[in-house]
Amino acid sequence: MLDVIGSPWLAYAVLVIVTAAARLRCGSWFAPAAFVGLVWSFFTGASLLVADYPVPGRGLWMLVLLILAIQLGALIAQELEPQEVSANGGNLANTLDSLIVPCRRYGILCTVVAVAGCVYFLFTSLQEFDLPFTPLGVLEVGARWTWLRYDDALEPWSVRLLVTWLHPAGLLGGILFACSRGRMDRAIGVLTLLPAVLYGVLTGARAAILLGLTCWIGGYVAALCTRNQRGMALFNVKRLALSLLTAIGMVGMFTSIDAVRSTSALQELVLDINEEKLEDFVLGSPAAFADWDAHADTPEAEWGARTFAGEFDLLHLRGRILGRYTETSNVIGTERTNVYTLFRGLIEDYTAFGAVLIGAVIGALAGSIYVRRSVNVGRAILWLSAFYAAFLYSPIVSLFSFNGAALAWAVGWFALTRTGHNQNPAQQLQPTEELAP
Questions:
Q1: Rounded to whole angstroms, how far apart are CA atoms 69 and 64?
Q2: What total number of domains does the chain contain?
Q3: What is the 3-state secondary structure (H, E, C) of 228-261?
Q4: pLDDT single digits (tens) 321-360
């Protein structure tokens, strides 16, 4: 009986049941309670299937408890929050249209700055490594920087200062793509991902591409949810096709970055899919978290040093460890990982009890904003995009442990919440009084 209660599969079944109930109650997979459960039901189930060692039930129950806290907080907030009357469709469309110009303007500006940083980085690296400006020479730049990063070497601060603008470029590009139906604007929205791809190739790092794409998807989903006040379907032809293309792109990115890293040794570009390594990278973190939680000593609270590692490092409060964790867990065969999800950082920062409380508060805030997203469109998109992006990235680590993510939402706040872009669409087009002659 104890084996059944402590089974990781029972914990997973509870997560799936609560997620299904949240979907039925909220009416959309994009409601915060359902969205978090959907993301983690997929990753947790897949991790249990691919892990080749017994996943500790105690550790997985802790993971599920943290996710349930977020879901229940969101559900309670949605029940307590009075349902807003949907704004007139035309007024809502006008409000969203008013976001197109600032998203286009600042999205292009951020993209240009980040691309300029990539170009500067490329030519200084070619000169430093004495490499030719050829396709193979460009790829070898990524291989060289991969090895330097293993020795704790970082790119020059001037490069990082310029390239970090890829994060707001991605966020604004995703919002622009969702708000506009014009081909030019949608093309610009896609092109905002260019600096993330360039920087990923030049450094041989997947993180840059993942961060840019996560910011983009967060903005895109938040804007679409705001446009579709009655709930947005997840499983339709367009979104299934987009999901399939994203999955194919992720596999291609993983394979391509591995090829870039091996360019220096092989002196040629070889595309080869390492299935075990791919499964470990994409699906290994829930099992790794469960293994860590089941065997870890109770940590002393670090009060944000893990969840906001970049900000603590920037303020010289605590130095950031490259790679985040020095110990590793065996996940799939011979593959090992040091990626333990967002939740390990929360527990190390605020203890397990504090992490549960914080999860419930985050869920409640997201649920409240989701219900009232027609009241202040700009701010709703801003906060919901942060929620969606943070939990899309949560199987890896805290999104806001990167300074670029904080910059993205600071720029987003400037672009979306200025006067004239964030009014209640029901009030935006109120007739004005005529002046007396």
A1: 9
A2: 1
A3: CCCCCCCCCHHHHHHHHHHHHHHHHHHHHHHHHH
A4: 655 566 666 565 555 677 889 999 999 999 999 999 999 9
